[in-house]
Amino acid sequence: MKLSRKNIWTSTRDYFMIVFGIMLYAFGFSAFIFPEKIVIGGMAGFGTVVYFVTERFAGYGIPVAVTSYAMNLILLAFACRTVGRLFVWRTIFGATILSIGIGVLTPLFPEPIIVGQPFMSAIIGAICCGLGIGIVFVHNGSSGGTDIIAAMVAKKSNVTIGRTMLYVDMCIISSSLILFGQVDKVVYGFVVLVIMSYVCDMVINTNRQAVQFTIISSHWDEIAAAINNDAKRGCTVLDGTGWYTRQSVKILLVFCRKIEAITIFRIVKSIDPEAFISQGNVNGVYGRGFDTIKLKAKPSRPKPVEESAPSSPTSSNVAV
User: What is the pTM of this model?
Assistant: First the structure.
């Protein structure tokens, strides 16, 4: 999209909402979850484990913000060639804001806001965190954490990003059983994980599926060029016929990630507000720019060579 006052405002609004979403996540974690000693998923949960382990054995707990930020930078150093520059920049920005937010808010809440109600604190904290992460994803942001691990695993195997994040978060939450020896802490952690995931999906209306767009517009060439240049996604141009007008039309077929859908809508609306657009969820997209089929194909068995029977005058196929 061309640089204009409207586009500058859109980008500014996106970054403002990303910061707001991250700070909402930091508030939910610092005010409700961390004071109750509940270990959740992600780098915040890993930082919680490190804090209480170092506090128990060294007498001083390493702040969650420091551990979270350091782990994000380490993971990005390994994943920078895999996930791309844009993802790295967004993750650095999100991780920086998140570490600042947790570092500032955690000392302000030495005790939970709702005293003596750990289950209620877990629910409210999970809702705040889920809303915050959902807002970040809607505005094309990233908070890092297990997203980095999931992105690296997805490049090397057919394990989905969501499943990888779930496995990593389950391992982090389960470690609280060894740390505290209390089953209720583990239960609270999984309650936070479930509610947070559900609320996040409600906000962004997706479970990280891909999206298929069908776009019909008289300005199809401008839209296709803008999608290529601004959204960094490919377009397929199909020929069609409008049966009502009996005229030939061009149809754009576009695949993108769910969190990139808002970018496609903005591009189309800025060029042709009257364009016809349909959007549908796709459970799997494989190819350049998306997932790669990494299954090993079974070796094909050689077909047995059939021996031809020698012809003889007595055979039934001999004409009489």
Answer: 0.64
